[in-house]
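Ticket #4471: structure output looks truncated?

Reporter: J.K.
Steps to reproduce: submitted the chain below (815 residues) through the standard prediction queue, then opened the result file.
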Amino acid sequence: MASKKTLVIVESPAKANTINKYLGKDYVVKASLGHVKDLPKSKLGVDLEHDFEPTYVESPGKDKVIKELRAAAKKVDRIFLAADPDREGEAICQHLKEILDGNGDKTEVYRVLFNEITPRAIQAAVAHPGRINQHIVDAQQARRILDRIVGYQVSPLLWDKVRRGISAGRVQTVALRLIVEREQEIQAFKPEEYWSITAKLEGHQPPPFEAKLVKIKGKTAAVANQAEADHILQNLKGSPFQVDSVVTKEKKRYPVPPFTTSKLQQEAARKLRFTVKKTMMLAQRLYEGIEVSAEEGRVGLISYMRTDSPRISDEAMQMVRSYVSDVYSDKYLPEKPVIYKGKKDAQDAHEAIRPTFVGRTPDDLKAILSDDEYKLYKLIWTRFTASQMNPAVYDQTTAEIVAGDYLFRASGRVLKFDGFLKVYEEAADEDVKPVEGEEDITLPLLTQGETLKSLEILPKQHFTEPPPRYTEASLVKILEEKGIGRPSTYATILNTIQDREYVLKDQGKFHPTELGTVVTTLLVKHFEEIFDVQYTAKMEEELDEIEEGQMTWVQALREFYKKFQKDLKKATKNMENLKAQELPTDEICEKCGGPMVQKWGQFGSFLACAAYPECKSTREIAKEETAVKEGGAASAESEPEPCENCGKPMALKRGRFGQFLACTGYPECKTTRKLTGSTGAPKKPDVVLAEICPQCHEANLVVKDGRFGEFTSCGNYPKCKYIKPKTVGVPCPKPGCGGELIERRTKRGKTFYGCLKYPACDFVTWNKPVPEQCPKCGSPYLLEKSTKKEGLVHYCNEESCDYKVSVEPQGVAMS
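Returned output as attached by the reporter:
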């Protein structure tokens, strides 16, 4: 009996090439290059009157791919659909099935799931094929239609009322709301003074140590001002310090679970300074396969990177426990496997992110991985290995010391057994202050009743601080905690709010722009429930219920649209029209002496003469985000700078290259002055980094603000003239080079991109390389350019490939 021929369809060419090597001659592996069908871009594509029936069309540029897949399907007995094992992958499989259904009854269509790209996992998956899960398809379809309805019906409203080309998104707007509301908290925050009092003491044995005042007459110490601090110091003069109690306890510190998607994004942001987008791009490469050696060929190095479960398989558990025992000895191996429980609402379809073979250490792969791939693989490998090791053990000592009515406390700990810390230690959360006593401080041997010598008593003034601005790591953390979106969507959310100019990222922290604040205020006011944090989380729960078969997708959309339709109707009628708004001000027009009004234009708010069109005088307003970003007061509130030539005040103007200062005596006086910062504001102070200069090995690197924006250089300039290259996350495409593409500038300041290894490698391009694989030919990167006719597009640089796509058309929401 002849063996059956099987067509296997995956998403990417890289994955197809890897899998092709693992399957025999009876298998043909093809790539769909992502989606083959989607909602049309030119219209809503959803029948709101008939149960939200979607109209799918073939994805642009996929004619050739679909033709090849249909031709291949006619020559086989079975089709295995093997898109990524998530909701979006399930939907892709359904659409592939629909376009291949015309091949006759003889062709059996199955769904196979590849949690890792290794010979064992691939062969096991094709040996046990399943069927497409319609509930998962429905959940993805519901999400897609929800986002389409919000994007295509709210965005035009913003075009009409605020500015053309901006957008709203069901989840993106909620993420932006968190950033805007945090900024409002910071602006409204009023610092409060408080004081700490620390005693530097010495016992009968060295070393001297510090103890903090914690209680006054049995109540928690609260020292509000210097007068109270001085009163305490006066009372402590001559007062003996006596050890009241000394307690030493053994304390264990347990390892953390292996990575879920969001935890990987957060840790890579904190430890490696990777953006969420870069982390997911690198993880995709490690999952799809790297050429390991001539014998092994291309091998997937990690399991699937979109998961919210910390579970690992029995086989992986056995593998890592054996490795820990062999390499680190049995004292590091727990008696029983450590089982980690996921969140209550976690989808447990996939394992945690882990190496496919723990015996393949980061050092083994260092020579064949790029620097960034190596760093991410090492992060995943060490976290996974440490998760199955014994806890670290400390001796933690707490001493309480009495001086009259005052109780001081000294805490410290000593590491007895390193346990999992031998391999990995989680980065500290930048938003969480360290817990007292959880620092590696050694206290001297103290005995109860012992009298201590007071060396010094140190009062210190403090002020309460506002909540910190969100970083990529902390924003991902809060999105996950509040159940907003899914980890697989976080990269898109963060990119969208930056691309739409709703936020700026300065020194890794998000600041809302004037536009972002205005859009958020309008949307939250007129769509209070739709863009509510809890409501958005509830919608995610309903999508989970659809996936589990507890609710139909039509039912979920009906409930949503009933409320949304009413809000949309009211907003269309009542939303403020900023384009037509003219707010009176106390400013006087320097040309005609009439009053100035505040208006809204393409670049935000500005001042214009109320006598327009007779008088066309305008004046720029220093943008609030610039003032916040520079850490000073808005320049609109400060004294105007006098012209160096005629003495008249200088005014802030905007030209083709941004904001500048111009004399109000124009045209008689044509004096202008460039603003030194890249944002049109006073130059920012240098920021010293912890990183040491790799060239002179003497000074720290420093972030400076230059005429072309921020750059990082050696703090030992001009003795050392090292400038840190600004990478774009794309390896040099020249075969055998192994370098990385960086941003460079011509002598005239024009930006281009070239290889870090220049002059040994002469690769250059004027257009910005984007770390995204070409879905048509598999090229590891795309180029980005912007034209008046096409707008912003991504295109393939390969001569034989004609792939080109508009980057999410303006006004279309992404969540």
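Triage note (M.O.): checked the attachment and the full token line is present. The first helix runs from residue 13 to 22.
Status: closed, working as intended.
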